[in-house]
Specification:
- By secondary structure, this protein is an alpha+beta fold.
- It contains four helices and eight strands.
- A hairpin with a 3-residue loop joins strand 2 and strand 3.
- The protein is elongated, with a radius of gyration of 23 Å.
- The relative contact order is 0.22.
Length: 181
């Protein structure tokens, strides 16, 4: 019975957890300054669809300076449509999913076996061990996931918009709030 409680608790936690590492998409260079800093590598796409990858040398409200193959390249905000950056997946969601799967499997097996003489301590120990192994595997899989996420996108439409995005990194915690007309 204890194994069932542990397994169900993990499933409830997994269902209630939201991804905390989400980053907003900036709509101006001013907002972008909250997401990147000089030295970060980004891929910039222009209105014609061409892309260039380089390290940020300088970022002001009106100018993005990149170092591309040793040469400085200055880009005005009007010359940039999207900016992408390679970012790792959060390890938290993978570890939590692995924990729940690892702990849920032995818990379900003990319950489904119908064995009434199963030692509760042994069931709990197996659930904890497999839960720990699952958490490690889940975190390991997430550590391998790196994607090119859009961090800047120029808005070309007219009208008022309110955009609120969380900013959660090791160095920064807060919210990015923008109102555009």
């Amino acid at each position: 019975m204890k194994a069932l409680v542990v397994g169900m608790s993990c499933l409830i936690v997994l269902a209630a957890t939201a991804t905390a590492g989400a980053q907003g998409i900036a709509n101006s260079f001013t907002e972008l300054r909250l997401l990147v800093r000089p030295g970060d590598t980004v891929t910039v796409a222009g209105p014609t669809g061409g892309e260039v990858t380089g390290k940020i040398a300088e970022l002001s409200p009106s100018l993005l300076a990149l170092v591309v193959k040793g040469q400085r390249r200055d880009l005005r905000e009007s010359e940039v449509t999207t900016i992408r950056q390679r970012r790792s997946d959060s390890l938290q969601n993978g570890a939590l999913a692995g924990l729940c799967i690892g702990a849920g499997l032995p818990a379900a097996l003990f319950v489904l076996s119908g064995a009434h003489d199963v030692d509760g301590g042994m069931a709990a120990l197996a659930t904890l061990i497999y839960g720990g192994v699952g958490a490690g595997i889940g975190a390991g899989v997430d550590a391998l996931i790196v994607t090119r996420q859009v961090i800047y996108e120029r808005r070309s439409d007219l009208g008022a918009r309110l955009h609120i995005s969380p900013i959660l990194t090791a160095e920064r915690k807060g919210a990015l709030v923008s109102i555009r007309f």
